[in-house]
User: Fold these one by one.
Assistant:
Number 1:
Amino acid sequence: MAAISSVRQLTEEHRLAQTALASRTAGQVLAGWQGLVQPRRLAETTPRWLGESLDTITTSRSRSRDLATAYLRLHRALAIETTLPPYEPEPAPEVITLGELRQDFADLAEIDVAPANDDELEVTVNDGYDWPDEDLEDLDAAARTSLVVTGPVHARQRLAEAEGAAGARRLDDAEFLDQLDVLMRDAGATAAAAADREVLRGGRDLLHRASAADPRTVGWARVTDADPCAWCAMLASRGAVYRSSDAAQLKGHAGRNAPPVDPEDLEKYHDLCHCQVVPVYSRTDWLPEQGSTFRELWDEATDGHTGRDAINAYRRAIEARRRRAHSRGAPIA
């Protein structure tokens, strides 16, 4: 049990808590697929799985949003000693202590935090701030589409391919049944991965829109997990991406041969991506240390390359670093 005394500690605890929440939900969606969906009766057995999975995702997505809200309120307090009002519409106090904000976050992250020396420090609540509304219809539609495409549609396509390959053979022979088992496991896994991303969409969307609506936010930075793909590592290598492209150029952290990164690029995620985005309030704010590591690798790997060639060279460098790190049981950054 440790005290959350820095933005760095808070950001890592937030990323880990969001990852755990999404992973638990993905496991529930996968278990439902394995227990409810029958490959030869997809049309009859997938509706119940889909309905239960969407209910689970909706609940977890709201929790992800609440966790991101608590993170943003504490993050802002630690960074600039002012914070945002509670998310739920209610009369906001004029001040709140860091200890209260820490406990709110800890409760939602399901972690224990040790007392900190500045727990009694009061920070001003910006009662003129309005949280942006969630577009629940869009979020629900995105979740439904993701699950349908990665689950039953994926299974149906693979099943048709398997049946076509079976030809005149009996469709209940051992080889075909093995194929059936594999394709259903694959479809369940892809649906679970989609559920993982849809849960995180709740917190990510809230964090992006809320910080974009905050005039004190000047930019954002990508925070990856310990084993990011080349795309996520490239985004993290850019350090802070500012609202103004001119400001980003002045910052000078893009690296040689770096493709332009728009703030919107930081909001692009793939299935099983557990990256988060950190709001930045000033040019002297803490930035994720991994960004410097990835930026140095970018400069080294892309020397003499530009455009797509530079991106491909960086991808090869990341994969080589991943192999070396995995052989040592270490993170890649």
Number 2:
Amino acid sequence: MSNPTTRKDFLKKSLFLASGITLVPSFLHAKNEKVSGALNPKMVYEFVNDAHTDFDKVKKMLEATPLLLNAAWDWGGGDFETALGAAAHMGQKETANFLIAQGARTDIFVLTMLGKTEIVKAMLKEYPNLLHSQGPHGFTLLHHAEKGGQDAEQLMEYLQNLGLKETFMELKK
């Protein structure tokens, strides 16, 4: 038979547990204090804007400020764009692959432009409404497949067979 818990034991265990509960969130927050504060908006704009056309500038800026990797620029009206999204809708494969290799978050639009057929098909099978999603600036998956050129030809045909005809849609408001 086990020993009954005394009031003193109960209070010690409760205090220990309560301390642990309050310290864990503080510990997690302390780890993130190094990255507190917003990035300079002008720098984010420049990074995203340059990702449309200037691979060398993107590499230099990312080397100097690694936190730009997943930064998004708000063009207004719900149109948010990362450097990876910019590279994708412009067909900038070298920039896109570089950013992904650095750990950038990718999405179905980027994967479409890169011609990642099996991944995109699996995503559309699981989530069919993604077929009519809007990427940055309202560009569709079909636009991204066109920008992917030969690498994305199979996906372009697949998307068209699924009924996607538009390369651009006004952003939903």
